[in-house]
Model the fold of this input.
Amino acid sequence: MSDTARAGRQVGEGPLSRAAAFVYTLLAVELLVLVTTLPGLVPLVLLDRDASNLPLVATCLLPVGPAVSAALYTLRHQRPDLTDLRPAGRFWRAYRNNLPGVLRFWVPTVLWLAIIAMNLANLTAAAVPAWWGVLLVLVGVGVALVGANALLVASLFTFRTRDVLRLALYFLVRTPSVTFGNLALLAAAAGLTAVFSEAVLALLGAVLVLAFLRVGEPMIRGIRKEFTA
Done:
């Protein structure tokens, strides 16, 4: 091996280079997430926090699923070599490939959550028992957790939509650490949105996606071991 090749290899594989590659990939993914969610993010930030706007909020959230899916794939397949970084190309390829499959379950998930939220917002006017509100919250949390699992599965594996949903339900019980981890992430995201705004949540998008990926690692390993060749 020539001195030039050896020097290039050391630059690309050293600890500092790996750290720089990781930071670069994270920043690139954050920028790409912001770009792909911008059509929904701008009106979402401008909307008043009123129950009557929930259908519009649901519409604004539709670009989030494909963007997060592409970010998950990019971070999962990031290269530690500083001399071989192509996060943008990997992101756009994953975005195009995952878009149809992700939307098949992401749209119904957002729709169900919007319907549940509208019902919760109008509990008093409907004069229904308090236990009905508790039941709606539990159903909403369940839908969100299944949707999160399905998003991770569809982003990293190639399954039919019905199989994606079956795996999402199966691992909801099979991997409780993933379920409780996702629940904590959803609570953190809701808290950030309530205290600050959707814009702050979007600015932390890549970090939250990375946390989501790390939390889902036991499920990823389980799927690779049991359901792939």
Residues 3-227 form one domain. Residues 1-11 have pLDDT under 50 and may be disordered.
